Amino acid sequence: MGQSNKGRQGDGKKASGFGSFGDLKKALKGDDPEASGDVSGDSSSAEAQGGAEQAKIAARGWTLETDDGEEYELDEADLEGLPDPDSAIPARISRRPGAFGPMEHGPKCYADVHSEEMDLVKSFRLRTVFPDDVRSEVEGLPEDPRPKDFEGRRDLRGETIFTIDGADAKDYDDAIAIRPRDGGGYHISVHIADVSHYVRPGTALDDEALSRGTSVYLPDQVIPMLPEKLSNGLCSLVPHRDRLAFSVFMEFDESGERVSSSVAKSVIKSVHRNDYRIVQELLDGVDSEETREIEFLREPLEQFSAWTRVQQRIRDAKGSLRINSSEKKFLFDEKHEVKAIVNAPKYFSQTLIEETALAANQAVGDWFRAKGLPTIYRVHPEKDQEEIERVAAMLAKHGIRVPIKDRLTGRDIGRMIRLARRKRNAEALVQRIMGLVERAVYEVKDHEDVATHFGLARKAYLHFTSPIRRYPDLIVHRWLYDVMTREVEAAEELGTLALVEDLNDTAAHCSIQSEAAGMAEIAVKDLKVCQFMEPRIDQKFDAKVIRVSRGGMEVGLPELNVSGFLPARSIGDRPQIDGATLKISVGKRILSFTEGYTISVLVKDVDFLRLQVMFELAK
């Protein structure tokens, strides 16, 4: 049953992962090593809603930066002038000094690399080790579903169902199938790993999954929400093995509109585990040994390709935000040290899978809305008008005219980005435009208080397709099945105040865990960049000025695909900002540095406390 989700969240610590100033004080004095993660008020504070900025870290200890711009420097001996120890601090500390300090040499072995990563991840109060009771429960699970598990399920093992994932993926939580529809259009089915069959409320396994809230994806490893036996084994939709699934069946007409949908528990057997790159090559007409291996899937893949392009046009017409950007990928040598940082290609085959997931998530969200029942939705709020006008004024100074509307759409932001990318200082402009995109959160909504997702231009959108790595998806699975099998009783339970409050607590906790995981992922990538750049201290590079401020410049090295900071004080004094230009006085001269232009720099230092590469102007 979907029931209550109260349980062990951090072994009795606050589920949000945040503590009081007293927790920070204990951490500084070494009394409570577990209290050294993010520190703020409770889960309903401005920080939890995205109001506070990530804290800065001072060289001698901690620096808290609060919402009002005040800064407090902390160490064990200096705790004066701070808020009352019993009050909450509306700021975030993302890392503690001493968790990792400056290193004379880089890591010497694989174990050292992961140890340092884990110290960093733990500083965000993310759990990295499964407790004994969880491991004990998992040991009792089978390697494959048993025949009795198939009872009451639709048997789809004879259908052409397959997965498409990245080359290094191991947790395959979604599989797809397609066939033409009479009169035009397609029948599409999306099959999601039925995690809820194995992870039951009231178990240590469920408590741990709730506490984690999400999997954490690092450059060289994954910290899973579920133990590996489930995430990579029993729940993973591996090929040629019977697997339990929760399936969404959708019918789309020739215009691409969904005309019907239904859901059912099922048993499937994937016919092939596909790779994004190879699928893309097949669609592009590449003839190779790899593409010939999946030739038998050409027809369904081409049908999915055609359907995806129609869906993209529909989303564009509705004002959805689509951003074409690449993600950095770290390449490692045999010592597990970073040897290169490259931009990973974004394949259309990835978009294909994204569109099937969006369609399934929307179908389930519409199902709950039609039933008039509350559940956990993915909510993406709009930006306030004052901020929109501020960014529009900034863009106007750079020759980008943006008509101010009462309501900004994702399509408007996409247009701003396309125009900005034509400018020499495109990176800085895109960064500022993306400031108009709020962070999505999990919230409980019902049919009257409809959830909206700004980026996708959708209503009643939720997460259903990744229960292996996201706890809200698991909650949606449970309640969906509960309402399907005992509609009256489940609807009554969902209508109770206590249950809705419990769902709200779970949604807030998962939002915080998702944010913490994202910050940890960024921090570990920054750590990897620092390790990569440490041997290059004192080396000279051509750098592009990405963004300027009175404090200095963010500069990027195209040759190495890394960026860092060049302080204005290392050049001269009296820094001034004039549009996209930083002007610094050096004696009687004024040096100007403009966004988008190239300068020569030296790698001055690698700051392992701030996780930042520091540059200076080359002589």
Textual characterization of the structure:
This is Ribonuclease R. Its EC number is 3.1.13.1. Keywords: Exonuclease, Hydrolase, Nuclease. It is an enzyme of class 3 (hydrolase). It holds the Pfam family RNB. The structure is a single chain. The protein is an alpha+beta fold and about 625 residues long. Among the domains are: about 300 residues, no CATH class; about 50 residues, no CATH class; about 80 residues, Beta Barrel (OB fold (Dihydrolipoamide Acetyltransferase, E2P)), CATH 2.40.50.140. Helix content is about 30%, strand content about 20%. It contains 15 helices and 25 strands. It has a five-stranded mixed β-sheet with strand order 3-10-9-6-5, covered by helices on one side. β18 and β19 form a beta hairpin. α8 crosses α9, α11 runs antiparallel to α12 and α13 crosses α14. The longest helix is centred in the last third of the chain and has 37 residues. It is globular and about 85 Å long. The relative contact order is 0.11. The N terminus is likely disordered.
Please outline what is shown here.
It is an enzyme of class 3 (hydrolase). This protein is of the alpha+beta class.
